[in-house]
Design a protein that fits this description.
elongated, about 400 residues, alpha/beta
């Protein structure tokens, strides 16, 4: 039988790590356990505050944050996470807290402004808060307003998440990013906004970029991305009319729901060779087939191709009037590099889908595995079963370019 360990017998670093996972109010309350615990809470490497979870008869939320920061003993503060509403925290106080955290050589800052329906208050993230050279991770979200008229200085920043933040203008975005010379990861999630025309991402050091943007306001034109070191690109959703990409070092791309205009803007790029080895395209929107052609033609080192269909296929759903423009010649990736092809939620009734699948099987000379998956067939769906059997027989009978290709059909 394993011996039970008293918390007092644990390693000090382990105790502090455990304490950093619980609310600060609980952490402070441990000071009454014993004399040894009276000041232990002052050494917790991560401070997390949420004004909505805070209730105390003895001191206000602001007083608690002040006390925690002023009592902090180690020289370096690993993380400062602040979720706050204007009803419990004044903007002047918040700025002071952040700068106090900066003085503790802060490494991670997470800010979330909690706003209730019909409120008009907003917290402004200004240039004065872009002055921490020890900061490695910055996450801004929940309706903060980024207003940066001049570039800041965050020389150590490697990870930046902008989750539903607002921006005063295009220059604020540019100035925020230009102050991060070592930035490697950028996550952008946006919704409705009227003040930005072009979202420009010109970061030479950037390696990973994820975008989810359903902003279709007339004022917003699109993205301009110039990141020669970019290796990983994920577009979950994009509905803007323009998209300009310069990323010759791209290795992996995951493209979800994009407007037909975005597909056309990518296809219009002629002089570009990508180092993409892994590619995922969602076949939800019209134009995905031209995007596929473009990616095949411009990704000579592509090794893994994944297509993802709709989660539930409406029996009456089909894209009207689309014609797949096959590559003018067999792309280099099909002749020498593509080894794995996966089509998830394949539409067994789609004639065009069958055309794309057949083309890939006929021309991928190095293909080792081709997998087609679909949802389960419910009892009584005999017609659907027959359709899938016919399509499977057709694909199985395709004269494949690769003699070693292993064809798999399965249910998800």
């Amino acid at each position: 039988m394993a011996e039970e360990m008293n918390i007092g017998q644990m390693d000090e670093n382990l105790i502090l790590k455990i304490l950093s996972l619980v609310p600060i109010k609980t952490v402070v309350s441990t000071s009454v356990l014993s004399k040894e615990w009276q000041s232990r809470w002052k050494s917790v490497p991560k401070l997390k505050f949420n004004s909505e979870d805070y209730q105390s008869e003895h001191q206000t939320f602001s007083e608690t944050v002040y006390k925690s920061l002023l009592s902090y003993e180690p020289e370096v503060l690993d993380s400062f996470h602040l979720s706050f509403g204007s009803d419990k925290a004044d903007a002047v106080d918040v700025v002071h807290w952040i700068k106090t955290a900066f003085s503790l050589y802060l490494r991670t800052l997470v800010l979330e402004f909690l706003i209730f329906p019909y409120e008009v208050d907003v917290f402004i993230f200004t240039s004065s808060l872009c002055t921490c050279d020890t900061l490695v991770t910055l996450k801004l979200g929940s309706l903060l307003l980024v207003d940066i008229p001049a570039p800041g200085s965050m020389k150590s920043l490697k990870t930046l998440h902008l989750i539903h933040a607002f921006y005063t203008n295009d220059e604020s975005i540019y100035n925020l990013l230009s102050g991060c010379p070592r930035l490697e990861e950028l996550v952008v999630e946006r919704s409705y906004e009227h003040s930005v025309k072009f979202f420009t991402i010109k970061v030479p050091s950037l390696q990973r970029l994820r975008i989810y943007d359903d902003n279709d306001e007339d004022e917003f034109v699109g993205y301009v991305i110039n990141s020669p070191s970019l290796k990983y690109l994920e577009i979950g959703y994009l509905g803007c009319p323009q998209f300009s990409l310069n990323a010759p070092g791209l290795v992996a791309a995951y493209i979800g729901r994009v407007s037909n205009v975005i597909s056309e803007s990518l296809v219009s790029v002629r002089r570009l060779v990508l180092n993409v080895s892994t590619l995922m395209i969602y076949t939800h929107e019209p134009g995905w087939y031209d995007l596929l052609t473009w990616m095949l033609e411009h990704s000579p080192k592509l090794q893994v191709l994944t297509l993802v269909g709709k989660y539930r296929i409406n029996p009456d759903y089909h894209v009207l009037g689309w014609e797949w423009n096959k590559p003018k010649s067999v792309p280099e990736c099909l002749l020498s590099h593509l080894e794995t092809f996966v089509w998830r939620r394949y539409d067994w009734k789609g004639e065009k889908e069958e055309e794309v699948a057949t083309y890939l099987l006929k021309n991928a000379k190095g293909l080792k595995n081709a997998t087609f998956s679909t949802g389960p067939i419910e009892p009584g769906q005999l017609d659907k079963l027959k359709q899938r059997c016919r399509t499977r027989k057709k694909l199985d009978g395709v004269l494949k370019a690769s003699n070693t290709c292993h064809l798999v059909f399965k249910f998800e």
